[in-house]
Amino acid sequence: MPMGLQQMPQPVREVPIAMNAPPANALGGQIEVTDVSKSYGAAGFAKTVVSDCSFTIERGKLTVMIGPSGCGKSTLIRLLAGFESPSSGSITIDGKPVSRPGVDRLVVFQESALFPWMTTYDNIMYGPRARGEDNKVSRDLAEFLLQKVGLGAFRHKYPPQLSGGMQRRAELARAMINNPSVMILDEPFRGLDAMTKKLMQDYYANLYEETRRTTFFVTTDIDEAIFIADRILVMTNIPARVRAVLEVNLPRPRRLEDIIENDDANLIKMEALSLLHEEAMKSFARGSKAAADFVEAYAKRIRKDE
To answer: Domain-by-domain residue ranges, the chain?
Structure first.
């Protein structure tokens, strides 16, 4: 068995939660993105990456963003995290403007951001120590999270000694110890082998169901999006804005195997794929009259079918 798979905690199966309504004890904040645009470059040469984009990341819900490659999803993550500021528009969390990074919004990136010179335990404790909170409460929480993510036996290991799935779980623990209001995940399972990716999807879905912490999850995998999401934001081609909002009213907990055979899930998938294909074709059409004509004809056919 590949390293790490035998350490994956088994998902807990509970009574399904109908229609994804967040429970009264749901954790987290709510983010409002209003008429946000982001451009790079000097006036006259500026390139607009995000244009008049508005959406809500609702408290206690798992919102998934999916869009064509290069449409501006990563730019939006940097804006939500406070790493950059919008050129216009506003971003707020619980009514307060987002103007800089903060522990209320923590990002798990595509690539591992674990410090290679730190052990698993020290990586998890990095946030509290950076804030001068290396105390019993933080250490007890770190121990709890180590067990929670199934890495208790790997506390003294360094990142290069961990499998890809283990590194992902360590990063989740490092984020959760800071008790963020919103978890932001940028294609966190990208690059994992198929088996580990499936296990991590199942594991994270179970983790979310336990806490209902507000989560913003970016992916290019439509099956992954439908499996974990309460709501899917389908983005346009660059410059990014929301093309459609798809509600995923499937009961929780979910299994990937059940989603594949679910008629409602397949209808959502067909709608999302149609929208994404049209937006991807717009990128293909740039600079080519023949390609532009093809895209226009395809769009008319899609609208006719609807």
So the answer is: 20-104+182-255, 113-179
Residue 111 in tokens: 């690539």
Pairing of strands 47-57, 31-40: antiparallel
Which CATH number is 20-104+182-255's, of 3.30.750.24, 3.30.2350.10, 3.40.50.300, 3.90.226.10?
Answer: 3.40.50.300
Regarding pTM above 0.85, the answer is: no
Q: What is the pLDDT of residues 65-111, one digit of tens each?
A: 998 878 889 999 999 999 999 999 999 999 999 999 988 998 888 77
